[in-house]
Specification:
The chain has 12 helices and 14 strands. It has 514 residues and is an alpha+beta fold. It has a domain of 287 residues: Porin, CATH 2.40.160.40. A 14-stranded antiparallel beta barrel has the order 1-2-3-4-5-6-7-8-9-10-11-12-13-14. It is elongated.
């Protein structure tokens, strides 16, 4: 759920005038440079202020106040580690600089050193005038480490101060959403928008409308019930029904002649959490799909998927897990293709709006009958990475990915289908107020076949470049029912003419979720 950056250095300005009575301990030259730096400091001219405070510390390296102000000015310039060193030195010289205790904790939080941040913030929490601000940042630190219970306790304390209430309510709402408690999160989001008018957080909250809340409820872990059931039904037009399902390894194959048709399709699935603790989640699931063509019934496709997932809950800056599933495909209600897949993965959170996921995928392909001959059975290895960007709202996500895979047929007769693939893709998911949610995706797959192809008399090999486009629009109807329209398009270019094909699927239907 959303990870928004708080402008931590901005909180350091509050103490600007609180330390003036303590200047008497500095030498005269240091005081002159310090006084000269206060004017640009108050005006937000950080470079000029930093130069003056640096001159003050050169004139008197024991001037704790000058070190303090150089530290918080450097924080505005992005010198986080240098600023931490300045504040630590200032506190060594003057342990009574109470504001520096809080600000040092804030800077360690900015640097992602949560344990050190919490150590200093807890000291600041014991200082009455710093209690509410320290509580806010303690709450943010525990939220980022995935400790929602402790985070909420501190954030509720911070919200007692009207000056901290907007940000505190926002982060408590994010914590509740991560636990699946949308009902409790929604009023906190609305109140945080009121308390922070004109800020990026307010803009994000404005985008988090009813449809966004329903979307969060579908994906957030920790919901009250350990199970979920979903289904869908609708109609589709397919310009090339003789190709295999678009989400399997058998999609990128010869089209056997293009023939269009319409079909009725439906699906049913469920998921059950067998383990749900503070640190771990494990679930099993099942999904059924059936497509019934109007004319080409010999190409009716059915599938059954059994899955299992295990992962840690977000541990501050990372999360790890492993997914496994088995797919059975039938054509005309007879066994056609099987695949088993194992995917270990790790996600790393970078700040409040970025995340990187890396993974390895091992897949076994088993073809049981034509038109895709059994000698195409193969082991497919893949490694990939995906970068996620939160675009100013909790329900607006851009992702960019790359995957390399190697398809290694088990039979020497299958060398026609030994190939490597480079896949580049980009996807945007966004909600448009309370009207609808959209998903836009594009992928380029470059297939490099490793051996001369039998269809050229083993003279030269095959090389394909496949373009895929995905467009999805959803409109919530009720809490449990959503209407959807989908488009899936493929354009495959090949140096072998018979492997050139295109495909377009347009589908419309309803989805149910309980």
């Amino acid at each position: 759920m959303g990870r928004f950056r708080v402008d931590l250095p901005a909180t350091l300005v509050i103490a600007t005038l609180l330390l003036a009575p303590q200047l008497a301990t500095a030498n005269t030259r240091s005081q002159q440079h310090y006084a000269k730096g206060l004017i640009p400091f108050q005006a937000g001219q950080w470079q000029s202020a930093y130069a003056s405070f640096s001159n003050a510390t050169k004139a008197d390296p024991t001037d704790a106040v000058a070190l303090y102000y150089r530290g918080i000015t450097g924080a505005h310039l992005g010198f986080v580690q240098e600023s931490i060193a300045d504040l630590e030195k200032a506190l060594q010289i003057r342990p009574d600089l109470r504001e520096a205790v809080l600000d040092l904790g804030v800077l360690y939080l900015e640097a992602g050193e949560y344990e050190r941040a919490e150590s200093w913030l807890k000291r600041a929490y014991e200082i009455p005038e710093n209690r509410f601000r320290a509580a806010l940042f303690l709450g943010i630190s525990h939220y980022r480490r995935g400790d929602d219970v402790t985070a909420q306790q501190y954030l509720q304390t911070a919200a007692k101060d009207p000056r901290q209430r907007g940000v505190a309510n926002y982060y408590e709402a994010l914590s509740l959403l991560r636990q699946g408690n949308v009902a409790a999160a929604k009023p906190l989001l609305l109140s945080s928008q009121t308390g922070l008018p004109g800020t990026p957080i307010a803009a994000a909250v404005q985008e988090f409308d009813a449809s966004g809340a329903q979307r969060a409820a579908r994906v957030a872990p920790g919901d009250d019930k350990p199970w979920e059931v979903h289904g869908n039904a609708g109609f589709a037009y397919d310009s090339n029904v003789k190709l295999a399902p678009d989400d399997s390894a058998i999609q990128r194959s010869r089209g056997y002649g293009s023939e269009d048709d319409g079909r009725f399709q439906f699906g049913l699935g469920g998921r059950y959490r067998v383990l749900d603790t503070t640190n771990f989640i494990a679930a099993v699931g099942y999904e059924l799909y059936q497509g019934v063509n109007f004319s080409n019934t010999q190409y009716d496709i059915s599938s059954h998927r059994v899955s299992a997932d295990f992962s840690t809950r977000p541990q501050g800056w990372y999360q790890v897990g492993v997914s496994a599933y088995y797919n059975y495909y039938g054509r005309n209600y007879k066994s056609f293709y099987h695949e088993g897949t194992l995917v270990p993965w790790a996600t790393f959170y970078e700040g409040d709006a970025l995340a990187t996921q890396v993974y390895y995928r091992l897949r076994g392909d088993d073809y049981t009958r034509g038109p895709f001959e059994p000698w195409r059975d193969a082991i497919n290895n893949a490694v990939g990475a995906r970068q996620y960007f939160l675009l100013g709202a909790v329900d607006r996500v851009l992702s960019v990915g790359y995957q390399w895979s190697d398809n290694d047929p088990l039979s020497t007769d299958g060398t026609d289908f030994a190939f490597m693939t480079h896949q580049f893709d980009i996807e945007l998911e966004a909600a448009v107020r309370d009207w609808f949610e959209t998903r836009l995706g594009y992928a380029l797959l470059i297939d490099d076949y490793e051996h001369p192809n039998s269809r050229t008399g083993f003279v030269y090999g095959r090389n394909d470049a496949e373009h895929q486009i995905v467009i999805r629009v959803e409109r919530p109807i009720t809490d449990y029912l959503t209407a959807a329209v989908d488009y899936f398009g493929v354009l495959n270019h090949s140096n072998l003419e018979e492997f050139e094909y295109d495909r377009s699927i347009v589908a419309a239907g309803v989805m149910m979720h309980f």
